[in-house]
Amino acid sequence: MTTSVLAVSGGTDGQVLTKDSLQPGGLAWQSVSVTGGVSSVNTRTGVVTLTASDVGLANVNNTADTDKPVSSAVQTELNKKIDTTDKGVANGVATLDSSGKVTSSQMPVTSQVNSDWDATSGVAQILNKPTIPAQLNAAAGANMTITGTYPNLTFVAASSATDLSFTSTATNATIASSTGVDATMTGASATNAGVMVAADKTKLDGVAAGATANATDAQLRDRATHTGTQAIATVTGLQTALDLKLDSANVDIDTGLVANSDTKVASQKATKTYVDTHLATKADATMVGAKVLLIDNAAALPAGTPAGVVVVVKV
Length: 315
Prior knowledge:
Blueprint: E1 15-19, E2 27-31, H1 72-78, H2 134-138, E3 144-149, E4 152-157, E5 164-168, E6 172-177, E7 183-186, H3 198-205, H4 217-221, H5 238-243, E8 251-252, E9 265-266, H6 268-282, E10 291-295, E11 309-313
Parallel strand pairs: 8-9, 10-11
Antiparallel strand pairs: 1-2, 3-4, 5-6, 6-7
């Protein structure tokens, strides 16, 4: 950074440095004259003394902050507050301890309890507890009637205890009282609670253990979704239908039919193989294209059997 020093001599107080090309260095000191001074202030002339009102500050004064009055709006809000001197004194407000609770010293004497009292301590720990009326002790455990206005109450034991009895029908239940009004409870419905009616109990008894309503009817009827076994006797008519069917053990698949049984039935394949085998051993040129008739014995040959039919008799 380069610093330049101007050497211009001859200046006096109040002069200013101006540019002048005719002077050495092109600068010269010049005196400044001021014309057109202030002729009036706020319409005032001559020697003028200004006040706060002259400059729009008529409401401004030098009153200390501690002496300044509050506004009406502030005073209204202050009137809603309580004085600190009203805390913890008679006809005032209670103060709270560090836990947010009213201190025991500010609580009515009749509501105080010992410091070690809790819900299980019993009435012995309660201070200023009222005395139990003598007539109440005598009537303890019995039905009572209460007359009078507190604290002047009279307790009178009833002549006898109330007996309750219970009766029911298929649709409701009644609790009878020996000294009061009977109460009848109706059966439960889809919208109102009540006692279980006989019809609903029958339905519940008909539901098998472990039954579920979480599947659709189609799923419940689908045999593929069933597991376990079911006794034949539990299915109506199943055993009778099975008795009419041929037992697979009585189907003879021996193509030679050597068993010669009266209780077995040759399968279709076994019969065909047997006939084909025997025809092959007995066939000749005249039998080509002939029809074959299989009979149990010669006597079973149907009347009117046409010529050219090959008759095979089982042996």
